[in-house]
Design goal:
Elements lengths: L8 H12 L5 H8 L3 H13 L19 E9 L4 H9 L4 E6 L6 E7 L2 H12 L4 E8 L10 H9 L2
Antiparallel strand pairs: 1-3, 1-4, 2-3
Helix pairs in contact: 1-6, 2-3
Length: 160
């Protein structure tokens, strides 16, 4: 499991401002927050290098790319082949994310598809990976709470 750097209130303020305006420059962030440009730039660099600030890919809606169907697939894996299965899943373009789990399933795979037949094809492709023993698909009917960090950033700024 990767070690994560701890963010302070200033880091959280910068990330909140960046969340409000993802295209903001370091100069614009510095002006908005009353910080020096060098402070903002060095903190952004540290956040990017330390893996606290990820790419903005999650802001692109897969439906806009022709993938309106979202599913979560739990996967049971032959344990000694877990890494190989992970690498094989990474080669499937429709796989957006893979998480290792505890419990009966080993992996939670977030996938997108063009339509039901396409999801069937992707599920079959996953089952063909050596080491994949079983899969279970759950189709997303609607998003109830979108991915968000703003409440946690606001809490960090408040020092709670």
């Amino acid at each position: 499991m990767p070690s994560h750097q701890r963010l302070d209130a200033t880091d959280a303020r910068i990330l909140l401002a960046l969340n409000r305006n993802p295209r903001a420059t370091a100069v614009a962030l510095a002006d908005e927050l009353g910080l020096s440009r060098n402070t903002v730039q060095s903190r952004l660099s540290r956040l990017e290098q330390g893996d606290a600030l990820h790419s903005v890919e999650h802001r692109v809606d897969p439906a806009a790319l022709g993938y309106p169907l979202t599913a979560f697939v739990t996967v049971q894996v032959t344990q000694r082949l877990l890494d190989e299965v992970g690498h094989a899943l990474a080669a499937v373009p429709e796989v957006l994310q893979v998480r290792g789990l505890t419990g009966q399933s080993d992996l939670l795979v977030h996938v997108v598809a063009r339509e039901a037949d396409d999801l069937y094809r992707i599920a079959g492709q996953m089952l063909e990976i050596p080491g994949v023993e079983r899969t279970h698909n759950a189709l997303v009917m609607r998003e109830m709470v979108p991915y968000r960090l703003t409440p946690l950033l606001e809490r960090a700024v408040a020092g709670k």
